[in-house]
Design brief:
The complex is a heterodimer of chains A (49) and B (138). Chain A is α+β, with helices and mostly antiparallel strands. Chain A is 20% helix and 20% strand. Chain B contains no helices and ten strands. Chain B starts with a strand and ends in an 8-residue tail after the last strand. The chains are: A alpha+beta (49), B mainly beta (138). At the A-B interface, strand 1 and helix 1 of A face strand 2, strand 4, strand 5, strand 6 and strand 7 of B.
Chain lengths: 49, 138
């Protein structure tokens, strides 16, 4: 069983519990998969160690 | 229930209480400009005795962000309930929880992501820098 992700959204002041793949996101408008893809593609990537 | 460890990463998912982590240990984020939203995946592992589990034993997980000066930027909390049974009730149970902490970085520097479970605190430093990603020392 896959465990839902708990999101502490300090920008929008919400605590969300998201089932991976569900049509809900951190901002309630972006699916988590998109969020992950955007994070990995953006300049906000972590530096490789 | 106590915090065993928290690992910042680029992605985590938990199946059958086992974690799959990508980019485990990621602690530096590069942004084009400030302010910038920063999203950090945190793989958390907790441990508890059998009598601390179940719907009758909710636990409060608090997540707190400190800015580059150490001031509290934001604080939120949620209730977690861990269920399941150990093969042997006297053994310590371990629980994995995938989380994301999203906050707005106003300036370059080190932010602290603090997690507090039942009064025990664990802090993870996250460095936010401006510019394209660079290797350490570049």
């Amino acid at each position: 069983m896959q465990i839902p992700i708990t999101v502490f959204d300090h920008i929008n002041k919400k605590v969300l519990v998201i089932q991976p793949g569900a049509a809900a996101g951190v901002n309630g408008e972006r699916p988590l998969d998109e969020l992950i893809a955007a994070q990995q593609a953006s300049t906000a990537q972590s530096a490789s160690k | 229930m106590r915090i065993d460890w928290i690992i910042p990463c680029r992605f985590v998912e938990i199946h059958d209480n086992l974690g799959t982590l990508v980019g485990a240990g990621s602690d530096t984020y590069w942004v084009a400009e400030f302010p910038a939203p920063v999203q950090v995946f945190l793989a958390m592992r907790f441990s508890a005795m059998q009598d601390e589990l179940g719907p009758d034993n909710p636990h409060t997980l608090r997540n707190l962000i400190r800015d580059t000066q150490g001031n509290v930027l934001s604080e939120m909390s949620g209730e977690i309930v861990a269920e399941g049974e150990q093969h042997k009730p006297e053994y310590l149970a371990t629980i994995m929880l995938p989380t994301i902490a999203q906050f707005e970085a106003a300036e370059e520097g080190t932010y602290m992501l603090e997690s507090d479970l039942d009064g025990e605190t664990n802090a993870v430093p996250i460095h936010v820098l401006q510019g394209p990603p660079r290797a350490p020392g570049e």
